[in-house]
Amino acid sequence: QRILDAAFKKFAQEGFAKTSVSSVAKKAGISKGLIYHYFESKEAILAAIFDQLVDVGDEILHLPDYFTPAGKMRQILESTFEFIKEQTGTGRLTIGLALQPEATHSLKSKIEQVNKNQMALYVKIFEELGYDDPQLEAYRLGALLDGILLAYATMGDEYPLEEMKSKIMEEYVPA
Question: What is the rounded distance in angstroms from the CA atom of residue 127 to the CA atom of residue 134?
Answer without folding.
Answer: 6
